[in-house]
Each structure stands twice: as structure tokens, then as C-alpha cells.
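Sequence in, structure out.
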Amino acid sequence: MSPVDFLQRNLHNRSGLIRKGAAFALRAPRRLARAKAKPADYASRPPVLANSFPKSGTHLLDQILEALPARRNYGEFLSSMTSSFRFQRRTSSESAAALRTAIPGELVRSHLFFATEIAEAVVETGIVHYFIYRDPRDVVLSEAHYLRSLNRWHRLHPFFRDAPSLDAAIELSIRGIPEKSDSFYYPPIGERFEQYAPWIQRDDVFAVRFEDLVSDQQPELLRQIADYYAARSATPMDIDAVVAGMRASVDPERSHTYRKGRSGGWREKFTTRHRDLFREYGGDVLDRYGFDPFEG
């Protein structure tokens, strides 16, 4: 295993210190690779963007896309929000500029809101864009656990920690904290989802639902993911071998945020109040994006 391969593997380590150290150490080989890049390299090994709605299977998508040919993950993670310590919105110009630094063969991970300026940067740089999303009811459940118990350094952690119960934390994730918009950006779940939703319907984005990717549809979806990349790369590839590599690369235990990673958990956890709040703050996202409606 090369030093770069070793560092890349540690980007999925459960230790935050090791992950950050690996990302820092990968900056030097990334600068070197960028300096050596030629225009033809972008055609033969186009950069890949693994974009996601937070808590929607980010690490699952990362692991699958790392199996694409000649792929390097240098630890770049682009977000429309600043660090979790501050949690404020970045400008679209900042995100677009960062995307334009992508190099041939790179896997760039992200939580990027839709913006025309960002979409144009993806196209101009020749990036192959994948986007994963999930039933927002499962998202609020996962987010409540994550912000309450897993990420104690997050700007939102004190609010979730101080919620009197997990049920109250789920309510908080549904309602958001819009009254603190001068300090950080955490609107209701419907607005959060709509920031990403336009990616779903674009022809130049391979959008996939988490629920489908962990179902019996997975084999066919992995082939579609590989085919989508192959159609945009000038280098011929063995689709069967790539799909086999994707299957082998999926390892939930490598995700430092992994909890249960299953679909429909909200049905067991949502109270009547949660359902009512989601109807109020979720808007029409369930109907518009093909998620099962509430029963009754």
C-alpha cells in the first residue's frame, strides 16, 4: 500500500484526529498532482463529485465512487456551510471557485446547495456529478442522534444536548432554529431539503435515493453509476470489474457517523406530534420527490 493509499483509507477512520491528520497530509500530494495535470487528463480521468444531502448516506456514496478507475480521495470536502464550529452559509462564488480546483482522478466529497453558479462550475471543470438524498423523515431522526450524541464540537450540539429527550431533539431537527438565523443557518427541514432538491432533476447529475441504494435495486444501480461515469470518460473501462469493486468497497463500519443506516426508521420513532410538525415544517417535499406519504 502506497503512503497516499494509506492516508486515503484513514479518511474514513472513526477517530476525528486521524481523519483530519490524513486530510492535512494529503494536501502535499494533491498540490503536486494539480501541478502535473494536463487538459487531456480531465477527459481520460474526469474528477468526480460525491454530493449529498446531509445524513443521507454520504459515506456509502463515497465508498462506491472510490471504486471508480484511478480514483484519488485527497480529503477535500466542500460544503455550502462553513465549519461545524461556526455553521454559517458560504457564498455560491466560494463553492464554485473551490470546485474549479478539482484535479483529474479526484473524488471530491460535498454537501453543496444548488446554485446556478455551482452547477456551471461543475460543467466547466468536467466533473462527473453524483448526488444522494434520503427520506427527510429519516434524515431528521439521524440528525437528532448525530447532533445530540456524536458531534460534541458542532455549533448545534448544545441545542440538541439540552433538549429534554430524544423526542424533543427530533422536534428540534424538524422545526430547525430559524430564530438564530443571525448567528447560524438551520432552518426547518423542508427549507433545508429544498436547498439541495434542484440537483435531483438535472440531466447532468446522477441522483440516487439512499433507500434504493440499500435495497435489492443496488446491483442495477451500481451498474448505472459505473455506466454514467464510463459515458463521460475517454478511457475505456471494464464495467463488470468496476461494479465488483463497488460491491466490495461498501463497508458501513468504515463510516465514523454510521449508526443503523436503514430505511424507514422514522415509522418506529415518530410520535403523533412529530408527524404533525413534519406536515407543518416539511412543506410538500414528500409528495414532490416521491417519498411515501404519512398513513391516514
